[in-house]
Amino acid sequence: MKISISVPSGYHAREILFPLQSLLTDDPSISSVFVITPAAEWHQQLFPDFASKFSFHPNAFTPEGHEHLLSDLKPDLVLTPTMGLDLKDTPLILAARRLNIPTLTFVSSWDNVFKIARLIRHGHAKHISNVSVAYALPDYFAVWNQYNSDHLFRLLPQLKPAQVVITGPPRFDYFTHTDRIPSKADVYRYLNIKSDPAVTSLVHCATTELYPFNYIIKQIHSAVVSRRLTTPIELYASVHPGGNMSKHQGYAKYGVTTRYSFGRRDSAPHPDFLFLPTTTEMYYLVALFQHSSLLVNQSSTVAIESMRANVPVINVMYGRSLDWWRWRHSMVYRDFNQHYRYITDNKGTSLVKHRRSLLPAINVCLNNPAYKSFERAYTVQEIITNSDGRCGRRLIDLAKSLV
User: Fold this and answer.
1) CATH number of the domain at 2-168+388-401, please?
2) Phi, psi of 6, deg, nearest 5
3) Are the C-beta atoms of 27 and 107 separated by less than 8 Å?
4) Contact 319, 211 (CB under 8 A)
């Protein structure tokens, strides 16, 4: 079998290509993997450890070019991470359809069906509205969970039951590779934190670009200075790999270690691959989640990773003082009332809706790591479906069954 995989960005490489790499390499029934990516020219730099069965091919510029590309490669199946949320996937799906090649879209993020709904209803943003076709339906979908499946059937009632399969997200398979996950001491060295990991609790603050985070950092720091926290902590603030570090550099005055999420590199040869975590960085990400004592965030996806590591999570559901209008009109506030309810409705996180409630919630989580443990496990089961380390295997087996 020969399979073609679309990798339009580093984010999508993290979701599909890297988690499937060893499985595809070791599968004798798969003879060739054609990676179609705008980074093909730099594949030796960006993807240095891929076996010879992987070859890298640049995206075409026209519908006819995509058709010629697939005609030359002759894959038995085309796998994409989106059905058009990334513009490079749409012409690939359309070209495969014209050539009668089966197509499978792995909906690469747990919240992307909501984005698909907006794409279908409103098209792309105005600055890219000149595309001739906004999206293309694949023959089959693979999704994270039952929520995604149900939502797709509501959104696309023409779909038949066999066209949507729940596999779970392959990148969560890394959590089961326990022999490769660094220690807490390793994480402290990686972050250049000098304190003793045996006597300090690591509090991970996951920032966002959608609303300021400094008011949360400042309040936690104030509690540290006034010794209102019941255990010594180290504060680490992660910045979204696509974010603007200048918005977050001010945290340093509060003693916070601040850096981009592991895998961001400013020297990438292609702008869509500024975030491209190596296998080592993926395991350090897992270690960060496992060895943190608490995650504090607004409405970040990393809450799922922290719950997968059975680490308490706090969702801050209030904005800055005297900033009511901006908070209510922020994307964070919208998230809480839309897709983020997949996370909060099962009560696996602590919802902090008032400033006065934040520090008591932090102390509860630090003093009792098992707090909400059952609810966390249930939420993880609902969101990622399979935590046995075989999501990647399920996706590959599904692809093989469709040929």
Assistant:
1) 3.40.50.2000
2) -85, 130
3) no
4) yes
